[in-house]
Design a protein that fits this description.
The chain is an alpha+beta fold and 336 residues long. It has twelve helices and twelve strands. The protein has one domain: Sulfite Oxidase, Chain A, domain 2 (Alpha-Beta Complex). Strands 3, 4, 7, 8, 9, 11 and 12 form a seven-stranded mixed beta sheet that branches. Strands 2-1-10-5-6 form a five-stranded mixed beta sheet. The longest helix is centred in the first third of the chain and has 12 residues. Bound molecules: ligand MTE.
């Protein structure tokens, strides 16, 4: 007998959303024939591009992938963090260190034109312009938990494509062992880069890195949208990384450079405080931050009392089934 198993990490939309806009977007997509019972997966980038052209005037209202890939149900207790919370409670030090600073200070941030350069140990380096970010790879919707190292978490419906697709297109050579990411450096637009006081003493540009197998893991997403719209500036427009089994600081925003490299690249928070923030930064309830426990987290949900939801933190943020194998020979207390 065939038994359909669901991975414990997977979330479904029915279980996570209470947003009226989100529902109305789904209704519109359905009327347009983009959502069938089985929800087709995008077949080709060019077909996707056609869908985008069709909707181009509405890019910020409707996210127009011709098919969304939906995930299976598993955990009935997951509630989507409301869009208003996802877009107003942010860490984006380039726009200030307060949780409300990015939404306030990033509003004029210009994302078009944009250039994302893929380079390094690859046979086919390439650069994507702003429109290419949405047209080059079939887009999918992924509902992921985001667990910040500060011990709060959200559940967010991202739109994006697997980083693996982008890397494959660049044809990495055998020296490509790590992937280094870099955020835009533009102190005129990013007040935190112009002032140590506003930017929290971080050395800019913000940089991050993954091992190549982590970068190629199917869960690793390049996100260009959330809640059915293009990314708001404060969430890392026009393109950011989402690595759901790692602490949020790995999910670098507003990326302009992705470089395949031979050696482990430097990463921003590790450079700032190596004893507190490691290169791997896998969510781990058994390894505390030197200044606080990582055993539990505050799940940001609907506001009010629920916003204080305290829940147990899961190893690898609940994605162990998909990712734990990559670390089976490592001491995660040492490589935190
Ligand atoms: N990327 C850049 N460039 N600058 C930042 O300050 N903060 C990180 C990460 N990416 C950060 C960044 C941290 S600490 C977290 S928790 C997440 O972004 C927060 O993402 P969110 O604001 O979309 O929730």
């Amino acid at each position: 007998m065939l038994i359909k198993t669901k991975k414990s990490s997977q979330l479904s939309e029915q279980q996570v959303t209470d947003e009226s806009f989100y529902h109305s977007r789904r209704d519109v997509l359905k009327q347009l024939g983009y959502l069938g019972a089985g929800s087709l997966l995008a077949q080709s980038a060019s077909a996707n591009a056609g869908a985008l052209d069709f909707f181009s005037s509405k890019k910020d209202v409707l996210f127009q992938q011709q098919a969304l890939k939906f995930q299976q149900a598993s955990e009935s207790s997951q509630i989507l963090t409301p869009e208003a919370k996802v877009t107003s409670h942010n860490n984006f030090y380039e726009f200030g260190t307060g949780k409300g600073d990015p939404v306030e200070n990033a509003q004029g941030f210009k994302v078009d034109p944009w250039q994302l350069k893929i380079s390094g140990e690859v046979d086919k380096p390439f650069t994507l312009g702003y429109d290419d970010l949405f047209k080059s790879f079939p887009l999918e919707e992924r509902i992921y938990r985001l667990r910040c190292v500060e011990a709060w978490s959200m559940v967010i419906p991202w739109i994006g494509f697997p980083l693996a697709e982008l890397i494959k297109r660049a044809a990495p050579n055998s020296r490509a062992k790590y992937v280094a990411f870099e955020t835009l450096y533009d102190p005129e637009q990013m007040p935190g880069q112009a002032s140590r006081r506003i930017g929290g003493g971080v050395k800019y540009p913000y940089v991050e890195g993954l091992r190549i197998d982590e970068a190629m893991n199917p869960l690793t997403l390049m996100s260009v949208g959330l809640y059915g719209k293009t990314l708001p500036a404060q969430n890392g427009a026009p393109i950011r990384l989402v690595v759901p089994w790692k602490y949020g600081f790995k999910s670098i925003k507003s990326i302009v450079g992705i470089k395949l490299v031979e050696h482990k690249p430097p990463t921003t928070w590790n450079m700032l405080a190596a004893n507190e923030y490691g290169f791997y930064a896998n969510v781990n309830p058994d390894v505390d931050h030197p200044r606080w426990s990582q055993a539990s987290e505050r799940r940001l949900t609907t506001g009010g009392l629920l916003a204080r939801n305290r829940i147990a933190t899961l190893p690898f943020n609940g994605y162990g089934e998909e990712v734990a194998d990559m670390y089976k020979n490592m001491d995660l207390r040492k490589d935190y």
